[in-house]
Specification:
This protein is mostly helical. It is built from 3 helices and no strands. α1 (about 10-25) crosses α3 (about 45-70) and α2 crosses α3 (about 45-70).
């Protein structure tokens, strides 16, 4: 499988962090932008929106797949 993040200047870790923060917490795009700026990452809120639209479904599918694989069933 080819890496869908390979053509972006920003590191994949930053993209994943921005999308996961936006997905996980009830924050606006501008709040995510401010949160990342406080950590030294200078991006626009529109960039976060673009990454969310492009990579959000892919990250959500990975999370669902991990949940199904690591689900423990009762031994009753």
């Amino acid at each position: 499988m080819r890496n869908p993040l390979r053509y972006f200047k920003t590191s994949p870790e930053v993209i994943r962090l921005a999308v996961m923060v936006y997905m996980r917490y009830p924050l606006s795009l501008r709040q995510v932008e401010d949160l990342l700026f406080e950590r030294g990452i200078d991006i626009c809120h529109e960039t976060v929106r673009f990454w969310w639209n492009r990579f959000g479904p892919m990250f959500a599918a990975e999370i669902r797949k991990r949940r199904v694989l690591h689900r423990s069933y009762s031994q009753w």
